[in-house]
Amino acid sequence: MLKQSIFFRIYAGLVILVVLVAIFGYLLVQIINYQRVQEYRESLSDGIAFIISEDVSRQQTQQQKIDWISDASDLLELPIYYLEANKVELSRTEKKRIEEQKAVVRYDANKNIAYLIIGIRDDPGHLLYVQIDNLTEQQMKVLPIFIWDYLVYYPGQEAEYIERIQEHFYYGLKVQKIESLELDSEQIGRLRSDQSVILYRDSATIRGTTISIVSPMPNSPGEVLVMGPVPMFNWMPFQLAAGITLLSMFLLSLGVYGLIVPMQRKLKQVNDALNTMKSGDMSLRLSVEGHDELSSLASSYNSMSDHIQRLIEAQRELMRAVSHELRTPVARIRFGMEMMADEEEYTYRLHQVELIDKDIEALNNLIDEIMTYAKLEQGMPSLNFEDIILVDVLEQVATETEALKTKKKIELLPLSSDVIVEVERRYLHRVVQNLVGNAIRYCDNQVTISGGIDPNTGKAFVCVEDDGPGIPEEDRTRIFEAFARLDDSRTRASGGYGLGLSIVSRIAFWFGGTIEVDQSPTLGGARFIMYWPATRFKKKKV
Length: 542
What we know:
By secondary structure, the chain is of the alpha+beta class.
């Protein structure tokens, strides 16, 4: 079935793995970017938060601080609250940032509002709380005013103090000549009119789009303060994309490894088993786990090992038995030839010739039996299955047996000619012939032949019963082995070579059926029954 295919499972596993890794990568990017954007907001706010904190701290009285905060709120067009510190709950990390004169940024994604919390250096009992709905270009242009308000206390030392406060700013702060900037005439005119200018720069580098705020310096007409460039937040920078890609490839590699390892392990087991077989050890068997192709391969290996081991054992037994079976008629032929050499009477010599001829015929029959057995044992013969009338085969065997004048009663139980089975006629005839011949050999007086289709299982069957001594239960399995005979007789009187039932057993196997032996409930002797599928394939109704 498709779901049991190892390749389907690998492909399905890869698809599921890719989907899971993609989901994992997406979630990981979201988590990382959440932290990155928080750090980005805080880094942009740290510098201005430090400057505002310093400017508020310079106010002498609390009322002056409140007035300065009010003016700053009007200038920024943002609400700024002067709150008692104990009314604002801060986390441990936020408290640490306040102590380091850094900004604390809280962002409400549902309302799209950022809250900026700023500590005051000489007033730890109060905090500045700024609500930022939207940061406009005009608000950005007034940011340099807070820096100039800080530097007003250091006339002539602006450049030096700009370098000192640079450590609090994520972006650059520097004083430059207007001529060093690539500005158009309109931008230069606005700077000379004491207005700030915002510069947008697009770049193909990793920084991407940047923003710079250029503000004219008081009392220095040819110089400007440049805040920036500030890179716009990049949701998928090269480092993050490369890291996520490498991590995804690593996870995919681990997943593929996990999918391939079981298959590799099973293949190694099969390879090791084949190497063991090559060394001559046929005892190793593989464990069959699951229902995929590799499990089928392991099962096939086990079946092949069983078959090869059985063939080797059968070959050894065949060699031993054949050597014994051939010696008897050969010895009789040699003895007859010697007797003929010493005897001159014609009648006696003619009698010896007849005996020798019978031994030669016995040798021919033995060779035929051995060839048939070997052919059936080594592999599946070429079978030509066809629909036949079962009773025709049974009647043919009964007629042929009666023609031998065995003086035994052969009874064929009535069977309708409508019973049609799919079978190789030649081999079915051989089965019935061997079973009837075996029954004739050991019965007292009567042999019964029957057949049909079992209504319970739907399988076809043939049955041969006799009124002989029967077969002991402990020997019912052994009699199907090659050259196995329970009477230990090897004389012409007993007939047979111990291959007939072995041939029947192999034919039943290649028919896809079974052969059973028990006690006949009617005649009291042995009863042999062979079952096999009445039809090999289900035929479609037209």
